[in-house]
Amino acid sequence: MPDITDQRFTPHDHRRCIKAAVAEATRICNERNGRLTEQRKRVLELVWGSHQPIGAYTILEQLRSEGFNGAPPTVYRALEFLLDHGLIHRIESLNAYTGCSHPGDEHTGQFLICSRCHEVTELDDPAVSRAITHSSASIGFAATHQVIEIRGLCSHCQALPHDQ
Ligand SMILES: [Zn+2]
Ligand SMILES: [Zn+2]
Ligand SMILES: [Zn+2]
User: Fold this and answer.
1) Would residue 89 count as lying in a domain?
2) How far is the CA of 96 from the centre of ligand 2 (A)?
């Protein structure tokens, strides 16, 4: 799978990102006997519609306009399936979803969220995860799940004039 993360701040043919994500998801689902139905696949494509996270409601409306089942439980189940298989992540602070740039590897997320353009980049630095696990353990807390959302400006937005 091409490294999607490196391309995200430079202009690129995003259709290739979507294609790569769907191909990788198909491979992972086949391996685990997960059923990537047409609807689930379309939800994945919509989450991968850009490198900015997308809300469930936007996905739901888009599906309806395409003649898919846009009932909220169906859409949330599809998102749940994609989350369970590590194909997408939920960004809590934005209440939105983003495609995982290296699905299949077991990882906890550190997300860099640009306050200006809302693009999200995964960091997934194991040293950070280990530091949290160790610090938590030192006060007797067994950390099982860590999601860190970090706000700031992406390199692209830092280069823009301030009042734009
Ligand atoms: Zn892209
Ligand atoms: Zn990920
Ligand atoms: Zn930005």
Assistant:
1) yes
2) 14
**pLDDT exceeds cutoff 80 at 28:** yes
Q: Any idea which residue has 């009932």 for tokens? A: 71
pTM reported for the whole predicted model: 0.83
* Residue 128 structure tokens: 């950070």
The count of residues in the chain is 164
Q: Which domain holds residue 59?
A: 5-158
Q: How far is the CA of 9 from the centre of ligand 3 (A)?
A: 8
Please state, in angstroms and as integers, the Cα–Cα distance from residue 54 to each residue in 45, 59, 79, 95, 136, following that order: 11, 7, 11, 8, 32
Is 22 contained in some domain? Answer: yes
Q: How far apart, in whole angstroms, are the C-alpha atoms of residue 60 and residue 57?
A: 5
Domain count, the chain: 1
11 pLDDT above the threshold of 70: yes
Domain membership of residue 163 (yes or no) is no
For residues 34 and 137, give the distance between their C-alpha atoms in angstroms, rounded to a whole number.
35
Ligand nearest to the CA of 111: 2
Question: What CATH number is attached to the domain comprising 26?
Answer: 1.10.10.10
